[in-house]
Amino acid sequence: MTLEERLERLDAIVAELENERLDLSAALILFEEGVACLREAASSLSQAEVRVKRLSELADGAFVVQELDDA
After folding, report:
1. Does residue 71 sit within a domain?
2. Which of 5, 6, 10, 56 could crosslink 41 through cysteines, CB 3.0-4.6 Å?
3. Is residue 19 a contact partner of residue 37, using CB atoms and an 8 Å limit?
4. Which residues of 6-20 are buried (b: 16+ CB within 10 A; e: fewer)?
5. Residue 7 forms beta bridges with which residues?
6. Global confidence as pTM
7. Going residue by residue through the chain (71 aa), what tens digit of pLDDT does each one get?
8. Which domain holds residue 26?
9. Pick from 2, 34, 40, 5: which is nearest to 18 by CA?
10. Is 21 inside any structural domain?
11. 42 within a domain of the structure (yes/no)
């Protein structure tokens, strides 16, 4: 599942949870699914951030953002 799909699913879960006619058992199942989607999305974002940049300190104390190798 892509990040965008996870975010769309989270939106759908929130909409379902806001429905007052939802019973407790169904609400708990949706809540657990939402937490799992949120964790997966956060992990995907974190991994993407690490792959895109790495902050390195130069000899003069300045910092530069460098792309990471695919290795």
Report:
1. no
2. 6
3. no
4. beebbeebeeeeeee
5. none
6. 0.67
7. 899 999 999 999 999 999 878 899 999 999 999 999 999 999 999 888 776 666 665 667 777 776 666 54
8. 3-66
9. 34
10. yes
11. yes
